[in-house]
Amino acid sequence: MPENITFRTQLIGSITEFCQDSQLAFLANALHLVELIVLLARYKEEGSNLYPKVYLTNNIKMLNSMLPDGESLKIGSSSANANGIKSVLKKCAPLATNGWLIYVEACENKLEYGVFKGSGNPISVLVDDVLMTKNDDFIVVKAFQVADDCVEIKANSGGLHYIFLNHRKEDSPPPLQFLGKLVEAVTEKTPEVDKEPTISFLNRLLFGALRESHGCIIAVTSMDTPPKLLSSDGVILEEPIDFSKLVYDLKKGTIDPSHLDSKGHLLQGMLNSDGIILFDNRGRLLGYNCFVKMNNKENIIGGARKRAFASVKSKIGNGISAVFMQSQDGWTDFDGSHTK
Amino acid sequence: MTDMILWQPESGELIPVSAKTPAEISGFAKQLSIKDKKQIVSAFDSGHYEMGINYLWGKTVTALKKELSAVGVGLLGEMLGKADVDEDDDVEDIITTKESIRLAEELGIVSSTDSMRLRHTYELITHFSKLEVEESDSEEIDESEAITSLKSCIKGVLGRPKVEVAKKFVEFREALEGETLSSDDPRVEMLRSSPYFFNKLTVSVLMNAAKKNTGANLEHSLANINTLIPSIWSKLREAEKWQVGLAYAEAFADGKTTSVGGLKSVLLKVKGFDYVPENLRSDTFIKAAEAIFRAHDGLNNFYNEARPVRNLSKLGSTIPTPALPACFSALLSIILGNSYGVAWAAESEAKGLLKKLSSDRWAYYLNNVFPSDVRILNKLSSSKPRVNWINLSKEFDLGSLDIKNNTVSLLLKASIDKKENKISSCSVKLLKDYYG
Predict the structure, then answer these.
(1) At the topology level of CATH, where does A179-339 sit?
(2) What is the model's pLDDT at position B360?
């Protein structure tokens, strides 16, 4: 009789310690988290891929009170086992788009679940910045498909793992790990008082947009005008979109949140265009659809995007301060002058 | 330890008893130039007392406001409950004369006696400036009133060297933002043992700092929030607890990640997340209440009060809890009026709004806000507003409410029994408990 070897068996061993450290009673049985990870890795409904973020908690009331101006909608309850997890995703995953997230409150013998979201204000603090930091008696465990075949599990008590459900090596860098560095480079010279909300806004915007993009390159310049390398073949905006200024205006109440959101939608559209997107390090979007001459000196293995990334990277310190690349499957690379 | 307070008004004999003439008295006005002194003395000597006093009063108020601005315009705004004030605003634009006298007293810049004398001088000037032309010809400020006012202005403000007075407070405020206080720092213990006013003020300073500071100052402020707030939390009244929750909600909406982290930490420590408002709707109500205060304290208040009260009324009768203190205080200010009377149009609208509030809300206000509602307590020392308060107590049946604070309970009983002296003494006691 042949013995089956599955990812499940492997996973249980690997995440048991994480489950124990999280102190969430529901995860005392690691199989529950395994079920969730496997479901999220390739979740589909009606033929469409879905990427819901799931937050398991011991106190939904506390979770809601930490997110002022947020919303919460209870959907139902299910048994506290693997079938219950399936039921949660079946009911909630299609709803968890446009900022809505799934919560699962693990009570004694059942799971209460529903959807919630943070503030609709585009510059408000990110939900994870509040929920996923250490909170003593308040426990949160988050699970999310961060890239194809990769699920991130994170506990607010400190544990963090990327579960690869493919052939990637153990020491592979996590996907989107460079998003923070990109945003840091883009906001490097923004006024101190507006830096945090600008970072929150760009993080929120880019995280969602990059997850759905088919890959992109974003370059950051430290110059006052776009470097010739990119401006000679690209769309350079006559009037840059100054996100830092828009954030300032929103805080002062001179523009509505929808004004900032609509500029964000333009950036999302640009991420779906060919070519390189160009920012400066003061939070201004200068142009998109930019192309560079390929650098053939280095022996780059990969497609056009990877070679374009190498070309821009070679100009770092020479008008370019940072460059970020996301490949089609969601994995990223980055280089920046301040990381050298 | 219990009688320790953080700062006190500087006292001392600024004008010797032997100084009796305008020239002798004005000689002690260190903040007046020789030219100013000459002009004032000349007006007094010519019997133009009203002109002289008006000129003197302008100089006094300017000097007082300038001195107040030394503690930071943002803080003054917080103390007055004006959330939209920041350091770039001009002190002249945001503080009325009445408010500046009150703030000077609260900050220890002038003693309560000097503050009372300054208020009297202000009332005297306002009274004569409001007289009709015919009346103005027959009534005038006499010499003794003018000399008393001259003394009050010099003793209270102009006789002091510039920007020396609020020094102790400025030092404490700087420490709150400029250094991290440890839990065994004597200033922490001192704050714990201080009268409620200082606790309230410290909450205002720290929340203001969490919302507006950046860099090292923010780090110090957040560390101090995590040391000081838990140590005084059990003493804090509902209004101040909501203030902490509201600061968290505002910082959250403004994307101030670092501030939110620090405030979240303190709210977890004190189990205070119940005080975080679900949304920022309360902000709109607070701003509407502030507009009422501005109209009430400004010139031509009887004409200007109706519109902001109507605006508050338009926001709906469900006032969010964090905005209740400001809204109650604003509406009661309109109904109680001042020593000249009330604005009828505004009063009926304000009463209409208060009538929509349940007895629970009234009990909440009287238990948690009224004991530190300096604005209303001060009104009860004045005859006309006190009579209006008595009528209001009866109309709203305040005697039937469940009140935990003994002095407030006595005050309400005295109001129902129409015992004016008892009302006054109770309000004075509440103010004394508040300021220490």
Answers:
(1) YojJ-like (1 (3.40.1700)
(2) 92
Residues of B in contact with A198 (CB under 8 A): 255
In this structure, the answer to whether residues B120 and B198 fall within a common structural domain is: no
Q: CB–CB of B414/B422 below 8 Å?
A: yes
pLDDT at B213 > cutoff 50: yes
Spell out which chain A residues touch chain B, with contact meaning CB-CB distance below 8 angstroms. Answer: 62, 65-69, 119, 121, 123-126, 129-130, 133, 135-136, 138, 192-193, 196-201, 247, 251
Look at residue B163 and tell me whether its pLDDT is greater than 50.
Answer: no
Of B257, B258, B276, which is closest to A65 when you measure between CB atoms?
Answer: B276
Per-residue DSSP letters for A139-206?
A: -EEEEEEEETTEEEEEETTS-EEEEE-SS--TTPPPTTTTHHHHHHHHTTTS-HHHHHHHHHHHHHHH
Q: How far apart are the first and last CA of chain A?
A: 56
Residue B10 has pLDDT above 60, yes or no: no
Give the model confidence (pLDDT) of B259-310 as tens digits. Answer: 999 999 999 999 999 999 988 888 889 889 988 988 888 777 888 899 999 9
Which residues in chain A touch residue B278, judged by CB atoms under 8 angstroms apart? 68-69
ipTM, interface predicted TM-score of the complex: 0.87
Please state which of the four CATH numbers 2.60.40, 2.40.10, 3.40.50, 3.40.1700 is assigned to the domain occupying A7-164: 3.40.1700
Which of the residue ranges A6-20, A25-39, B74-88, B243-257 would you say has the lowest mean pLDDT?
B74-88
Query: Measured in whole angstroms, how far is the alpha carbon of residue B181 from the centre of its chain?
Result: 27
Find the residue in A nearest to B273 (Cα): A65
